[in-house]
Amino acid sequence: MSHTQRISRRGFLRRAATAAAVCSAAPCIVPASALGRDGTVAASERITLGVIGMGPRNQSNLPSFLAEPDVQCVAVCECFADRRKLGKEMVDRHYGNSDCRVTRLHEELLDRKDLDALLIATGDRWHALLSILAARAGKDAYCEKPVGLTIAEGRMLVDTTRRYGTVWQCGTQRRSNDSYRFVAESVRGGMIGKLHTITAFLGGWGGDGQAKPEPLPDPEVFDYERWLGQSPWAPYSPVRVQLWRNNWDTAGGVIADMGAHYFDFAQWAHDSEMSGPVEFAGSGIGPQNGFSNVPFEVNVEARYPDGVKLLIKNGAKGVRFDGDAGWIHLSDEGELTAEPKSILAARQRPAVSWAYMGGHVRNFLDCIKSRRLTVSHPELAHRAHTIVHCANLCMRLGRKLHWDPVAERFTQDDEANRMLERTMRLWQHG
After folding, report:
1. CA–CA distances in Å: residue 384 to residues 200, 329, 424
2. At 266, phi and psi to the nearest 5?
3. Is the pLDDT of residue 429 over 90?
């Protein structure tokens, strides 16, 4: 039996009674690591983890999970062979063995009885679907943003995790960042007076090309059909794969990429986490003749029921909150500025990078054990992502949209309501 098989938390508990009976009849030697001695964590307290997706995001996420003593990563799933190899090397190097299993078939991870949780960082088209499949398989999940391609996917995720009682955390790690917490609490505490405007600066965007069809690669080298997932079928092209964030079929552009973080932050500071704006209007400018069809330049204004405006635009990444008695701004590099400057006097801790994962990962792991809601739980994440999709839809349709956050429908706009969901492609896996 391999080391990774021995340490399954569920497997350990199932075998405990049998082991006790055997030990009562004959001498029994139990390794110190199984009991949590010598600085290790007892097998019954370890969380066995499977990874789906080993692109740049999980290459950053995975070390934070491996650093936690109560996590044991046992498997990596990835459509690209070179990324599967990289994931296995990262895991095996950390544990000093060669036990990590690799596969391109996510079904294998869903079927494993010894897996407690999944770390999911694929393209946007797979986020909600894999999270839903994980919940149905009884597995908790940490999933990267954005949640999905439509508002309907987000609602389905919320309902499914609630139905199956699984723990889910969105990869909006800024929610567990002390710098963001300081700003949110300052705004909510009235340090800038009455809030009237939130401005989310999403940064720049670009990248285009001609998606010229090429022969399908060997699925063992790159499984394109699996990578494409629910999205409409299209001929394989390296441009399509490299620029997937820039096409509506597979993603949602800059608003989906950075807005998922910043709208969550805005809702937090505005104390509207379970609701959202009721009006969206704006425009976007993007390429006309290439593969990319999402806006590169965006200018959207959303309005909350209390009159507070959320402005969404390009510019150096960060979020600014303006009130009738001052303002506070947090850049993506962690630089805090404010007026009056006395607001910053209460700031005692040094700035923490947006990339810091430790607190967010720890919250997820602790909630797996307590079965409590995470700080970026499904409903909260879904509400922030609803802003993402409403903002994109108002640009795509070229008109103001009126949104009902309770019914989760647009008012008197059948065309916009038809875009709340979309038909998913069925595909034969293998």
Report:
1. 13, 20, 23
2. -60, -45
3. no
Structure tokens that stand for 239 in this block: 């441009």
Which residues, 6+ apart, have CB-to-CB distance to 341 below 8 Å?
none
Query: DSSP E strands: which ranges in 121-255?
Result: 140-143, 168-170, 195-201
75 and 179 belong to one structural domain: no
Does residue 229 belong to any structural domain of this protein? no
Overall number of domains in the chain: 2
DSSP letter, residue 410: E
Q: Are residues 117 and 262 in the same domain?
A: no
Cα dihedral sign for 265, 261, 295, 327? positive
pLDDT at 25 over 60: no
d(CA 269, CA 331): 15
Which residue range is the domain that position 93 belongs to?
3-173
Q: Do both 83 and 22 map to the same domain?
A: yes
Return phi, psi of residue 52, to 5°: -120, 110
Contact 299, 313 (CB under 8 A): yes
Three-class secondary structure of residue 15 per DSSP? helix
pLDDT for residue 7 is more than 60: no
3-state secondary structure 109-134: HHHCCCCCEEEECCCHHHHHHHHHHH
Evaluate whether 381 touches 145 at the Cβ level (below 8 Å): yes
Contact (Cβ atoms closer than 8 angstroms) between residue 7 and residue 41: no
Say whether both 20 and 150 belong to one domain.
yes
Q: How far apart are CA 309 and CA 400, in angstroms?
A: 14
DSSP 24: H
Q: Structure pTM?
A: 0.91
Across the chain, mean pLDDT equals 92
Q: Which residue has the tokens 């009991």?
A: 35
Percentage of the chain beyond pLDDT 70 is 90
Residue 165 half-sphere exposure toward CB, CA atoms < 13 A:
3
